[in-house]
């Protein structure tokens, strides 16, 4: 297909779209292969301090930023931190919130459900991992003149981008986990983020330690996570 072909729709230029398609047999093979590969992904909490090049993190962020978003507003900011002093401050603040959560905010049922994961209020991975990436959602945009503009489906858009970010991390041969200390206001303060941004999720990114153990968990079956109407 010739990508030089264009069409004007509602006054905006549209370009011809190219996309690979496959015979059914190849499509089945590729879809199964991707599932088998992605099914090996696990949340890892024991990180090596081995360095990861900045360009790798940039590529991961750009991969996540290919996600669809409401009206193509791309309402996200990925803040990548490798500075050790700043990581230490983030860990200290995160653990303070986690301590309160484990001691008074979380229900007994919640804590019981987490027992199989083996997590607690201590978050050493924030300091150990060579990078932590804090994703902020932009609840609205601010122009240079200070005027505000709505963003649309912000939580949905940022959630999709974060899912694609996790997949990109797996593809790079690195590991991560999702960390959401609550409340997360301290992250905006520590990173000096503007008033229109809210911390959404924190990802430590790096290599796993040489020997890591993860919970022996079973993912739900296709029957449990889907319903087909044929």
Given helix and strand content, the structural type is: alpha+beta
For CATH, the homologous superfamily is named as NADH Oxidase
Strand content: 15-25%
What characteristic shape results from the CA principal axes? globular
Instruction: Give a short account of the largest sheet.
Output: 4 strands, antiparallel
Strand order of the largest sheet: 3-4-8-7
Please give the CATH class: Alpha Beta
Give the termini separation: 33 Å
Architecture overview:
The protein is α+β, with helices and mostly antiparallel strands and 230 residues long. It has one domain: NADH Oxidase (3-Layer(aba) Sandwich). It has eight helices and eight strands. The chain has helices at 24-38, 54-64, 84-105, 108-114, 125-128, 154-171, 185-191, 222-225, and strands at residues 6-9, 12-15, 76-81, 131-138, 140-142, 148-150, 175-176, 197-206. The strands form three sheets. It has a four-stranded antiparallel beta sheet. Helix 2 crosses helix 6. 21% of the residues are buried. The mean pLDDT is 94.
